[in-house]
Amino acid sequence: MAKGFLLVLSGPSGSGKGTISKALLDKRDDIVYSVSATTRKPRDGEINGENYFFMSEDEFRIMADEGGFLEHAFVHSNYYGTPKDFVFKQIEKGEIVFLEIDVQGALQIKKNYKEAVFIFLLPPTMDELRSRIIKRGTETDEDIKRRFSNAFKELDFVGEYDFFVVNDKVENAVADIEAIIHSEKLRVKRHNDIKKLVTMQGGTVNVK
């Protein structure tokens, strides 16, 4: 059985990570979304182990101290993290685990798990990025300036990633990510016995 892998998508605010992630997950059934852990309380309708792994602050801190997260952060009065155990179990089952995260989180993961595949999502231009942030209609002028400034700084980290994808049109960006997924499935290191794949009677190699 082919070994799976962790696919990490990140990029600056306004690059369209959420839109691309939803489109990709809606299109493919061979991707498992990485479930994060958090100390915040569940909202109505949220299911433990499906939306998040909900835990107390003490449980979270103990897990962090024991190295149980690929990355973790304190955001808006709560802890969030990516549990190693969930990700690694899915990978061993041959699954592609998909994680959408900010640049800081992606860099943490790269430090702790270099086997992941990292994609940086870019806007077509910085002017388009600014326009997308403004169109949200939820940001103050100060917030827009801060987000744009942070986005410009985050471009310095593109070199830490394996691939970049330009989000000019959603369908084009998704197609580029699917091409990356296909190429990663063909990596020799992800297969235990390639010779067996091609010599099995009536067998065919299928990586779609």
Care to describe what's here?
The chain has a domain at 5-34 and 94-199: Rossmann fold, CATH 3.40.50.300. It has 208 residues and is of the alpha/beta class. The strands form two sheets. A five-stranded parallel β-sheet has the order 2-7-1-8-9, sandwiched between helices. A four-stranded mixed β-sheet has the order 4-3-6-5. The radius of gyration is 19 Å and the shape is globular. It is 41% helix and 21% strand.
Query: What's the N-to-C terminus distance?
Result: 14 Å
CATH class of the domain at 5-34 and 94-199 equals: Alpha Beta
Instruction: Give, in order, the helices and strands.
Output: EHEEEHEEHEHEHHEHH
Taking pLDDT < 50 over at least 5 consecutive residues as the criterion, the unreliable ranges are: none
Query: In which order are the strands of the major sheet placed?
Result: 2-7-1-8-9
CATH architecture of the domain at 5-34 and 94-199: 3-Layer(aba) Sandwich
**Helical region count?**
8
The total count of strands amounts to 9
The average pLDDT value, as a whole number, equals 90
How would you classify the helix and strand content by structural class? alpha/beta
Shape: globular
Biggest sheet overview: 5 strands, parallel
Report the portion of residues in β strands: 15-25%
* Rg, Cα atoms, Å: 19 Å
Keywords:
four-stranded mixed sheet; alpha/beta; 208 residues; Rossmann fold; five-stranded parallel sheet; globular
